Amino acid sequence: MYKYLIGKQSNKVKNTVERRLVTRFAESIGDLHPIYVEEETGRQSRYGQNIAPPTFPRVFDFGSVEGLKLPEKMDTVGNKEAKAEIAMIKVIAPNMAARVIDRTIQAFGAAGVSNDFPFAASWANIRTLRLADGPDEVHRRTVARQELKKYQ
């Protein structure tokens, strides 16, 4: 459906991030430093608020690709109209994160699932997120229904 977008580079956009998303991200990578998750610590810090882990911007900075303008679409027509794109991201992003964590575990071998490294816990957290945010099949059904509506 969006195969023509493969290989295209996105333009950078400024993202407003909910603190809850930063907390979820910190939990999923196993980094629960108080500056990321505790409001009081954030207020007392030199930043005056919570900050995101250094890897967060690399994950969240998606920009917009011509033909797939989710941030713009959400801002201009609202979340209801961007329903299919939101559902796509809710399937793709956690699956990509799980794949990266799984490959990391593979690279570390048996040590990757030991308590010496946070990878097994990170994998469990991201897998739980995939269910907590709604099972993938629910999001896939949403995309399918939105696509079928175009042809009815």
Automatic annotation (TrEMBL):
GO biological process, any: fatty acid beta-oxidation using acyl-CoA dehydrogenase
Pfam family, one: FAS1_DH_region
Domain Acyl-CoA dehydrogenase/oxidase C-terminal positions: 75-146
Cellular component GO terms held in the UniProt record: cytoplasm
Organism: Salipaludibacillus keqinensis
Residue ranges the record marks as coiled coil: none
Name of the protein: Acyl-CoA dehydrogenase/oxidase C-terminal domain-containing protein
Domain FAS1-like dehydratase positions: 5-64
GO molecular function: acyl-CoA dehydrogenase activity
UniProt keyword annotations, A-Z: Flavoprotein, Oxidoreductase
CDD domains xref list: R_hydratase_like
Gene3D superfamilies: Butyryl-CoA Dehydrogenase, subunit A, domain 3, Hotdog Thioesterase
